[in-house]
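Fold this complex.
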Amino acid sequence: MTQQPIVDARAIHKHFGALHVLKGVDLKVAERELVFVIGPSGSGKSTLLRCLNRLEEPSSGSIVVDGIDMLDARTDINHARQRIGMVFQSFNLYPHMTALGNVTLALRKVAGKSRVEADRLGQAALERVGLADRAGHTPGQLSGGQQQRVAIARSIALEPRVMLFDEPTSALDPELVGSVLEVMRSLRESGMTMIVVSHEMGFARNAADRVVFMDDGLIVEQGPPAAIFENPTHERTRAFIGQIQRH
Amino acid sequence: MIQTFFNIEIIAAAWPIVLSGLLNTILLSLIVVPLGLFGGLLLALGASIRHPLVRWPLMAWVDFFRAFPPLVLLILLFAGLPFAGLELGGFACVAIAFFLNTGAYYGEIFRAGIDSVPAGQVEAGRSTGLSRLQAMTYIVLPQAVRNVLPDLLSNTLEVVKLTSLGSVVAVPELLYQARQAQSLTYNPTPIVVAAIIYFLMLWPLVRLLSRLENRALAGRR
Ligand SMILES: Nc1ncnc2c1ncn2[C@@H]1O[C@H](COP(=O)(O)OP(=O)(O)O)[C@@H](O)[C@H]1O
Ligand SMILES: [Mg+2]
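Structure:
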């Protein structure tokens, strides 16, 4: 990696009380890279993502995103978070607002755009996820796949430098998964840096630059998708991949 | 019988007195309800700061004023404060007592509403850079209020009814004025009139409440 990584996390530890969940994780991500994070349930994947935008406070370590020291007390965390989009398994759309309202809230209240300008940018973001015609719908009137795409639009409207996806398709009916992956693929083609926690191995094979395997709070091994899926070096990786491929 | 309990002449004579009582009851409600809502909101916002040093005192405060009978509180303020050199008058005492009592109730309702909003909602907002207060204002509170609207309305009904306690400390609200009129006319008709007015005033709210409750039930199905 010759250029400066856009995400540079070092020696991240996270304790929940007596539970040691992250045990010294290092993760560097280059600009425009798509990193796929896999691993058994409870291995700390979500916690790692949530530490990167400080939804979770790491117990120790350092995190620099786009040159901003995320753990420095002087960092304006609300400002920094605009550069880091996050997409959740359960969408977490605001049910009392329309799709456009969901997308424009932070544009107006954080980025300081006027309502007209926010609406324009929000509409453009909905366009990018193929939902321009659903701007006036509330989440309750949208399918799961459409809701997740609105959630993606809510993040990309702020023009983040990095996007974090935490199992974006796990809550979806199988027939709706494709539409969300499609949007993620087009984001990747537009050059977005992405860290994706997911079990969509097909997508990983096609789209990921690197696959990271986590187990028990540590990165066990990482490499190009082909290497990790066909020739894992660690026994634990082999066991995990064998397990998910049987499903 | 009708001559005794619903005497038209007496209604005519007592009407100005009863009407002034009604206006005071409305005025009192218009002061006490927003005050209680405001106090309750502050308490609930305070309690949403999870820090034990903030949360525990607020919970103790809420428990205390919910356990304390509002009538006792009112009389204590009215009869007790003058001994502390503070002569506030009946109206102010009612306002303060109700602020303390109903604020605690409204606070519990708001708190339950805030707790009913999934944590993922705040996380989504904060991940886009909203501050804690912005997430509360734009994301949590609108949903919280909607979730507990029937409880808020139900409590408001109780508060309006409770304004009749003001009669104990000579606040000329509806009940007090009706009793004045009764003692002037030596006839129970003004009390009957007051009862009818209370009913007519609160009945629409009761209807609205049960519609909200039915809708909430239907929404949960
Ligand atoms: N807020 C929390 N409080 C306590 N324990 C937590 C919390 N969040 C996660 N954990 C625990 O941390 C471990 C890792 O969780 P998580 O990062 O969600 O794993 P994954 O996303 O890989 O399934 C689990 O044992 C989980 O129970
Ligand atoms: Mg997870």
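The pocket of adenosine-5'-diphosphate (ligand 1) is lined by residues A 16, 19, 21, 39, 41-47 (CB under 6 Å).
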